[in-house]
Amino acid sequence: MPFDLRATVPSLPERHTAPFREGGLGTVAKDAAMRFSITIGLILVLSAVGLTYEIAAGRVLAPFFGTSLLTWTAVIATVLAGFSLGNAMGGFVAERERRVAVGNVRVALVATAVLMALSPSALGLLYAWGVRGTGGMLMSVVLTFFPASVFVSLPSPFLAKAAIEARPGREGSSLGLVLAAGSTGAILGAILAGFVALPLAGSAATFAACGATALLCLPFVRSTPPGGGTRESADEPRSGVIVGAAAFVALAGLAGGRICEYESGLSCLHVVREGDRVSLYSDGITQAAEGIGNRNVESPDLALSYTRWLWARMDRDLGPAPSVLFVGGGGYTLPTKLLASRPAAQAVAVEIDPLVTRVVRQHMPRAGEMIARTGTIATGNDPDAEGRLGIVHADGRVYLNETERQFDAVVMDAFSSNTVPAHLVTRETFERLRSIVGGPVYVNLIDAPNGPLARGVHAILSGLYPYVIAEQGDLNSIGRTNIVLAASRTPLAPLDGDPGEYEPARISPARAFTDDRGWAGHR
């Protein structure tokens, strides 16, 4: 009579006897269609793809809708919603007969590849159709990034089930390793996106690489053990479909146009020459401009009206040898004007992205020449970059917190896409400025007349300085304009003439922004 373990141990819990009903512990592990290490590897890879896709989505959205707390909130919420639905659907898929479930998972991987590679084109198409504003941004994010997020997460429950089945009797540790692989993959995806893929390859290539990686997972998703046959299920994508998907992904990566002319992890830049003017755009927003008819660096013209207003104030307020801090290098047009007009002046420009400086040197003739003649780029051993034009590649707030230098004036002109970074328009930031800047503070904003950003910054300056003036220019097509402010401990003399077609701005009282409750971005 054969030995019957279940007969000798009748109280053995059901979950412990289940593996033996399949033919014994050793048999189940040996005959598993997918090895445990393979399932863990696939979970890790797909988690990395998902997080890389999420971060690339936020980056590629910037040239169309800017980058702010709202855009990142929309991207994160949409992608996580897709992950949630994909996992829920994948749970039902995992319960199906093995061959059918494998076919569904492989279809999901093909769909993931195609949709991820298609994402930049889909976003551009929606924008070309006239989708604008916060509502248009939300619709574009959902339509572009939600479907791929669903499909990339759909295989996870099936893979988790396969991992547990591959190690019967060790369900707890198997589940723990499944969860750890998912988290590890997400970490790797975030690092790859932020430090490698987006800065080095750009957005379009990153999306194509995500799709290609999903396709590379196909051979490892099996319904039979290795060598146990390769018969396809009716639910599995045929070879022609897979080849077509691979060709599409490759075409998207190689032939698809670059979203940015110059791209880093921080900026999407374009340089446009129109007549006698060259303009630098960051995320579709005018960053700087120079007239190229007059190439005399000793007498540079200012092409943008807000820079003419700021320069008129600086020229009126500052002495012959001021030391001026510029938070936001941009096109370096104002530092160039200052140094050309005042031979004894000194400037420090804090620009977070070294790519901006490189593009300016290459394409903005007078600013590039001034940087070549007088510029000194700070190094790790010389964070303050001594010289007539010191260039510091750092976050403006970090520089303010760490510098020990004193300045006669400061120009706050830092932008992230179409708005000011929230941490640069808080009471704490301007309190720090007040301790290291003895003279005027000049601020450039983009907002609606009497908008929330202008009101919050005006409240900060009014609480710190007895004399504050604010003026605004003409409205653009979406009802926003440059709002420029000047604040000082001493009275600000009126300007001579009209430097930039600006008029006094009426700004209502409001709550001052703080590090705890700050600016959330344009809606």
From TrEMBL:
UniProt KW Transmembrane helix keyword: yes
Transmembrane segments: 36-57, 69-93, 105-129, 135-154, 175-198
The keyword Transmembrane helix belongs to this UniProt entry's keyword annotation: yes
GO terms (BP aspect): polyamine biosynthetic process
Residue ranges that the Swiss-Prot or TrEMBL entry lists as coiled coil: none
GO molecular function, one term: thermospermine synthase activity
Keywords recorded for this protein, A-Z: Membrane, Polyamine biosynthesis, Transmembrane, Transmembrane helix
PANTHER family named among the record's database cross-references: THERMOSPERMINE SYNTHASE ACAULIS5 (PTHR43317:SF1)
Record-given protein name: Spermidine synthase
